[in-house]
Each structure stands twice: as structure tokens, then as C-alpha cells.
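Explain this fold:

***
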Amino acid sequence: MKKGIIKRILKYAVPYRKSMIGAMIFALLYVILNLTAPVLIGLAIDKAVGKNNVDFAGIYQLLLMTAITVLSGSVFQWMMNLCINKVSYFTIRDMRRDVFKKFNSVPLKYIDGHPHGDLISRIINDTDSVGDGLLQGITQLFSGLVMIICTLVFMIVLNVFIAIVVVIITPLSMFVAAFITRLSQKQFKEQSETQGEISAYINEYVGQQKLVKAFGYEDEAQKNFEEINSRLYICGKKSQFYSSLANPSTRFVNGIVTTAVCITGAVSVINNTLTVGQISAFITYANQYTKPFNEVTGVIPQLQTALAGADRIFKLLDEPDQKPDIKNADHISGCKGRIDIENVDFSYSTEKKLIKNFNLHVKPGSKIAIVGPTGCGKTTLINLLMRFYDVDNGDIKIDGKSIYEMKRDELRSMYGMVLQESWLYNASVRDNIAYGKPDASIEDVKSAAKRAYINHFIERMPDGYDTIISEEGSNLSQGQRQLMCIARVMLCDPPMLILDEATSSIDTRTEIRIQKAFNNMMKGRTSFIVAHRLSTIKEADVILVMKDGNVIEQGNHNELMEKKGFYNKLYNSQFAASNA
């Protein structure tokens, strides 16, 4: 699995192979110059050996060459890091872009079925960890591999026997690092998953802070947080403990290498096969040869975190997309608004059926109200009409054409939808109202705002229609946010409407005005109205009374009241309390 993850990460880096090649070239130049310095220093030492036998001119020249070599090496190292940074950051940019794009292509069922905080963690925390690990990994791989090869060549040139001693002992550090990596891999994966869990919990807790305080749930929320946080602490401690063993263990092996070089080098000096300057260079080379192994083991925690994060990202990217629109999809021009729902079955889970053999035929221009107890399937019906979810069996048709033979964008453009939960984003008032029609003129935006009875409020804002709304409209009341969403729909002027508790947060006086505006807007348009306050839907052409996913009663208000059935009980129950 690890090889597959690394391979997929490298695929993202392929478009930037020129920078990768540049990094390898600069790494080679940096390493060669870095290895040349010990040779020059060794030659300088040899020129200072012997009483009254010091070649100051030669030493000065060698030190000047060493300074130039080190300075040039630093420049090439900087250029290597520049190329590596480009590869890393552009790779993560592309990966994050794909993840965000995936959010728009997976079925809504996937988004609804996962904690939003966990999904946010994947696109932010996990991609950041991949970026950090990739940056460290590429840096160590490029410079380390070149350093090992070039150092080995330099050592063989100086003394084959000592070079063989170094090569034989050094692989011990690799075996130690590999063993420790296997121990820590599971812990890092668990740590990454728990980080996603705690992000989801915090996102949920912060977003619903008023409810937490209103119900006095602070202590229980703190306990839940402590439980997740303690699990994160435990798996984080274990992963860090195992990974922290790698560096000191490899350094211990490297200490053995240095000791072996010193002993064999001292014997070689005594036997006159090496000079003091050469043994000095050899000790430096031995340290530089083992240094890449130390650096790699030092970044094992980041690499493991990166692999765990990448695994979570690729699991998301591997999720199947929603069914694509069919080729040569039907195009409806001049939508009349006739809706036919035929033998529809639907369930959110296979264990529990919600809608069974549902049939409905709506005439063009009808005003359809949907009522019923909580969980009866009202909002589900809206989801099916908009094709946020696909039916399990049956078909839904608009003007005689199946919605599954249309493009989703075209289907949804036929509806204007106002939900109970109003949504605004961090942009100007004008941009929020024109969300569904970005090219609308300011005059059209103001006209829609006037019809939604929000224009007077907007003009009193500091910058009018250019006033920036904070995230999710937190600087507005719930009623103001809902009125802006209503203005957004009025601006689009769609052929059909869906109103899901569209006036639930608006005061009674404004609601009466909005109802008049909606009535004018709904003339000649097929409209679906989901409402709990039954007084708001008395004028509907057809009222569908739903229970357990089925329509149990159907008719206008007077007809249903005369039946003395379920609707009659619902209606009277709402007014019994107010009349008492």
C-alpha cells in the first residue's frame, strides 16, 4: 500500500519534472563542491606538518579555494531548495485542487454521510502534512542519494580498504530505521484519523455553541473532547516514541563507523599509506556518508504523517463520482412545469425503506403544498425532485421527459429553491443576491431585493449593496439572511419554485408581504411548498399529506378538512393551543 501511495504522490510531481531535474543537477554540484572542501583542508593540514616546515603561501591559497568552494556550494544548495520547494508546493496545490473538485463530483450522500470537519481536515491538515513530508522527503532523497554516491567515490579514491569498512558497517543503520518505521507506521495512521475526528468534533461544537450553552451541555461536551483528545495524545505519543528511536539508533551505528575509520586510519598513517591530512578528510567523508542516513531517520515522523495523510486523501479521491449525465441529454425549452412521479422507491439506507411505490401527477402552474409529521419524507421528496439523490426505482418526469435523461445543471436551473436554513457566503450583499445569476445588473439586484422587502435594510448598511457579509452571514439576523435568500430566487425568476419553510424565521408582518410576493411570483409556475404552519398553505391548489414516505391524503384545504382525516387533526392541533 505504501508503494502505491508514494507512486500516486509522484504522479502529481510529474508535471514539474524540469524543476526536479534542476534540483538533481544542483544537488550534484552542491555535493561535489561540499566534498571537495575536505580534500583542500587535508592538503592544507599536510602543508603544516613538521617543525619549521609550514608552507604559509600554499595554506593561504588552499584556504581561499576552500572558501570559494563552500560559498559556491551554498549557492547551489539554495538553488536546489528553490526547485524542490516549487515541486512540493505546486504538487500540493494540485492535490488540494483535486480534493476540492472531488467535493463537487461525489454524490451528496457521501458529503451527508461524513462529518464535515473530517472532510475539511483532509483538504487542509492532510494536504499540509503531505506537503511537509514531500518537501523533507525530496530534499533528503536528492541530496542524500547524491551525497552517498559521491562520498563513496571520494573514499575509494583515497583508500579502498577503509571505504569497504565504512560500507559494510553503515547498512546497519538502514535496517534499524526500517524496523522502527514498521513499528510506527500503524500509530501514525491512527494519529491522522484521530486528528480528522477531533477536527470534526470541534467544527460541530463551535458551530453550535449557542445550543451547547442553552442546554447546559458544556461539561458533557468537554468530556467528549477530552476522550478524543486523550486518544490523540496516546497514539501521538506512541508514534513519536517509536519514531524518536530511529535517529539515536542510527547515530550509534554511525559512531561505530567513525570509530572504525579512526582506528584503521591511524594504522594506515603509521604504515605511511595515508597522510594526516588524508585521514582528516576520510573522517569527514565518513561522517558525510552516514549523515544522509541520519537525516532520513530524522524526518521519519513527517514522512509517516505524510503517508497517512495521503492515504486519507486518496481514499476520498477514489470515491465513485455521481452518475454522469447521459450523452445527448434531452433539452427542455419553455418549461411548462408538469411533474409526474411514477412508482418511486427510495431509501437513505438499505435497512430502512422510506418512500415506497410513490406516485404523483402535478399539473402545470399548480401550487403544491407538502405537509406531514417530522421524518415523513417531505424534504426527501424535494431532494428527489432536484436530483440531489437518485431514486432506487421508478421515474420522475418534467413535461413528459425523465429527469434522468437531462443534465443536472439544466434540471436544477428550472427550480428556484429557498430553504429553511439560509446560506450566505463571505462576499458583498450584491454578490450574495446574484449568486445564481452573477451577470445580473445592480438594477435587477435592487428590484429583487425590493420584492423581497429587504431593500430598505440593505440601503441602511454602511456600504449598501457593496457591504461585505461575514462568513455565513453571522453579522445578520436569521430573518435578514432568509430574506436575502428569497431575493436571490426572485432574481433568478425560475419556471418552478421549491419553498422549504421559506418564511420560518421572518416576523408575521413581513411574512404576509413575502407571501404576497411569492403568490405573484408563483402565478403560472409550478410550486412546491413545504410548511409546518398549515395556515400558510390554505390557498394551495393541492395539499399532499405525507406519512411514512407515502401520500395518505390529497386535495385542497376545504376538501381535506371535510374528510375529517389526518390533515384535519394536524390543522386543528395547531390552533387548539392558540385558542385555549
Remarks:
- Residues 387 and 408 are 7 Å apart (CA to CA).
- The beta strands are 339-346, 355-362, 367-371, 393-398, 401-402, 415-418, 496-500, 526-530, 542-547, 550-555.
- The radius of gyration is 35 Å.
- Residues 339-579 form a domain with the Rossmann fold fold (CATH 3.40.50.300).
